[in-house]
Amino acid sequence: MEHGASSVPAALPYYVAFSQLLGLTVVAVTGAWLGLYRGGIAWEGSLQFNVHPLCMVIGMIFLQGDALLVYRVFRKEAKRTTKILHGLLHVAALIIALVGLVAVFDYHKKKGYADLYSLHGWCGITVFILYLVQWLMGFSFFLFPGASFSLRSRYRPQHIFFGAAIFLLSVGTALLGLKEALLFKLGTKYSTFEPEGILANVLGLLLVCFGVVVLYILAQADWKRPSQAEEQALSMDFKTLTEGDSPSPQ
Amino acid sequence: MEHGASSVPAALPYYVAFSQLLGLTVVAVTGAWLGLYRGGIAWEGSLQFNVHPLCMVIGMIFLQGDALLVYRVFRKEAKRTTKILHGLLHVAALIIALVGLVAVFDYHKKKGYADLYSLHGWCGITVFILYLVQWLMGFSFFLFPGASFSLRSRYRPQHIFFGAAIFLLSVGTALLGLKEALLFKLGTKYSTFEPEGILANVLGLLLVCFGVVVLYILAQADWKRPSQAEEQALSMDFKTLTEGDSPSPQ
């Protein structure tokens, strides 16, 4: 192990700060786009649609991304505390995303539009169901006390891979939605470099950058959360005996 | 190390076979979409545009994805041979993608359309430039004999991360392009579940699945190519002396 439980890799805080700057900028630019070019946000009329992109970006992009970073940021806190924070961020993301989903289905219903006909809709509903399944699996394996040590160790790599994959799919789905919103409104005017088109393209690139930076932080092997001393000791001595909390870094 | 140089992880061949089935299906469905609904392919008139999606899918998705899998598939061959195959697949991908790019710029020019105004265009040109830079960096560090052992070891994780990131961005860019092509042609008819819309949505999901399966194969730590015995020996004995080929698994 390169870093003890007490040391923080030198570059990590800068990358985390940069990811937060990018994430907040994404949320702000989404708000600016909806405010400047789409008439703002309300739970009635055509403005109800605008709740959808804002909630999905806050929930499925920003909060979901931050939930993945929790184990890199909170390195010295007890594993259990960090886990609960990870779970709570995902609950917040899920609730906000649900509001965003209700907004678009309700808007479609009132306007008599079809649901889930586009690639954005197909990807979106798939990703949301996967996210829900991932949340329930994560809860039952890691927060619910019943799962055994060996079950947890076998499921952990799958949870980490599909967590990252679902996050990346969320970013991709957001790009498809943004593109759809642009093309429906601008049509061929999109090719005349309208200010709205340029702002939305910038928002798309910011979304991509947020996704890449979060993935970069997750992918650095020596930025992973170190095992705590007491967890390591447990791991060495009781690996095959205990069925308790998992000792390995996450 | 869990696997010796001679053993292949039991599940790996099935995942690789599945990835190839998906990749070939993606290419076939792209061809079917262009043939059935877009009049086929030619280097003249409006059919010239159709060269673009087909070439980009073959080059930037299928061949690029396969180039990333080379180190997982060829586990017993000499490191040098595997490297050259990795480089050659990327050269083929690059040339085919270039043909696809020339097709769309030439088509835009003949029709008097603007270039690079959309999010698809912005993402696409960014990804292509990153891919070119990645290729040149990879060539100078790993195939050109000048780079030192320590330089190679430090660059390797970056090369692997950005290789995967560029591949995923290519998949995302393809989805955006597909969506653009659909919305420009179908417009509001997209919401009536036109056969072309459904076929293209299926193609989009297949592209996503190919991306996820390739990423899954790359992400499994114990599916990585094992160090060859002679490379390991070199690594142990001459690590600080030699400036030759890199001994660690890739």
TrEMBL record, chains A, B:
Pfam families: Cytochrom_B561. GO terms for cellular component: chromaffin granule membrane; lysosomal membrane. Its cofactor is heme b. GO terms for molecular function: metal ion binding; transmembrane monodehydroascorbate reductase activity. It catalyses: monodehydro-L-ascorbate radical(out) + L-ascorbate(in) = monodehydro-L-ascorbate radical(in) + L-ascorbate(out). The chain crosses the membrane at residues 12-36, 56-74, 86-105, 125-147, 159-178, 198-219. Residues 18-219 form the Cytochrome b561 domain. GO terms for biological process: ascorbate homeostasis; intracellular iron ion homeostasis. The keyword Heme applies. Keywords: Cytoplasmic vesicle, Electron transport, Heme, Iron, Membrane, Metal-binding, Translocase, Transmembrane, Transmembrane helix, Transport. The keyword Thylakoid does not apply. It comes from the Eukaryota. It is a multi-pass membrane protein. It is found in: Cytoplasmic vesicle, Secretory vesicle, Chromaffin granule membrane. Gene3D superfamilies: 1.20.120.1770. Its main location: membrane. Transmembrane reductase that uses ascorbate as an electron donor in the cytoplasm and transfers electrons across membranes to reduce monodehydro-L-ascorbate radical in the lumen of secretory vesicles. It is therefore involved the regeneration and homeostasis within secretory vesicles of ascorbate which in turn provides reducing equivalents needed to support the activity of intravesicular enzymes. This is Transmembrane ascorbate-dependent reductase CYB561.
